[in-house]
Task: structure prediction
Amino acid sequence: AQSVTQLDSHVSVSEGTPVLLRCNYSSSYSPSLFWYVQHPNKGLQLLLKYTSAATLVKGINGFEAEFKKSETSFHLTKPSAHMSDAAEYFCVVSPFSSGSARQLTFGSGTQLTVLP
Amino acid sequence: EAGVAQSPRYKIIEKRQSVAFWCNPISGHATLYWYQQILGQGPKLLIQFQNNGVVDDSQLPKDRFSAERLKGVDSTLKIQPAKLEDSAVYLCASSLERGSGGADTQYFGPGTRLTVL
Result:
């Protein structure tokens, strides 16, 4: 069985300040982990994925995430928030390694608000 | 490259009516997924196809939901009869993945927002 817990349902930051979106996972296997972003009225877009090649994963738009097995965490960060980052973010786990996109389990989402 | 297409974008029906959603995946993508996303929650997988065969439909409420992908390309998801709790966004996604393993990405369509009154 696998599950994902996003620790904050809402995060609010000022433009230009760092972003931290927290995610903890549970998996019986060596999982693949993903972060997706969902802008209003748009489809989910992949930000980055962990495939066991490196624990620090860089994604699009300046986002990155660090896989910490000892803490079962996969937090998403960005050094400086931009207004266009305002969206809903989902942490996602697959029980298959190597970045497999099968059997994805989504967290409940974190709504990021960026204040001017 | 064209993305995953879905129609309609919005649908309002009354309970006990039937409704159908259509999805056209990215060209060449073998695997197609349907998800249900209830307001305030993450998407939940309903059914996964590989080509025209069902790989996983364990979370599909088969008494009222059905899906098909007859020629291994586009797909339809039907609800009959609809209940109030079916109000949600229905997302379609596709990936290249052709077998076990593989490092493929799921590409999502914009979704169909269903309101059941």
